Amino acid sequence: MKKTLFIIFMFSCLLNACSQNELSVIDSKSGLKLSVINKNYPLLKLLLPNQSKSERGIEIEFPEHVTGLNSKNGLVEHLYLESRGNLNKRTLPVWTVKDNTITYKTTLNGNVSMIANAKLDSNGIKYTYILTNRSNNSYEHLQAVTCVKLYSAFSDTLLERTYVHLSSGFDLIASETPERLTMPLEKWLPCRYLVSYAWPISEKRVEKDEDSITRYYKSRKADMPFIATLSHDKKWVAATFTSETGNLWTNPERSCQHADPKISLNPNETKVLKLTTFVYTGTLNLLFNYIAEDNKRYASGSK
What we know:
This protein has 303 residues and is mainly β. The protein is built from 3 helices and 21 strands. The chain has one domain (26-300): Beta-galactosidase, Chain A, domain 5. A hairpin with a 5-residue loop joins β16 (226-230) and β17 (236-241).
């Protein structure tokens, strides 16, 4: 009897360990599945209901980096940078899963604590970053830059299904660069395509910096702070949205979406950064109406 109870106990512990190891949640209504695929350098994966675990789906660098302008010395400071690896000065993330929310806690640079939440629902993922500044420095333009990388069903290297919303309606983000459809891929990539929202429109349409990455700038502003991509079969739409951002942009090599908010963070302050990735079946117009309502909720502080 004791041996049987011991086996049951060990089996239960194993199941719990596996559950904690997997760190995943599934929305029962939509069938969307969100999981952690890298714990040390937070990376999430979102799969559609019909996608297998072997597919890349949508990968989210959660975040790619946390960066702000140090008001004391006027320098841009990376509190966390995924590509820096072990050189990051931080505590390793401590993960938990509760209901449909995946959370981790970490301390960056020894004195800025961050609680990152990814909440899954039937329309996608809501991200929040709660930052508390325990240093003597003030930070301006502080961002937790979240890179939403679209693979599998949404990949869009030539930006044929990626849209922003202008005052005149939806427009392909790269509509002003039709030559992208016929130029050799090695000439098109690597590049970034950027659209102003709050920031002034760039005077340049195209420029290449010392990093050899070509940057294309749209000549008109977006009037809503989101970037949207249709799936290959045009049955799904994925869109990343925040209430306020300087610009919207994509790296078409990995079809990523960026709509990053920013805050100022003084000593002993706690502030929150919020953004959302919508993923659901529907049209761009339905998306626009939904985001317009979401934007009102953000503005009223009810979210």
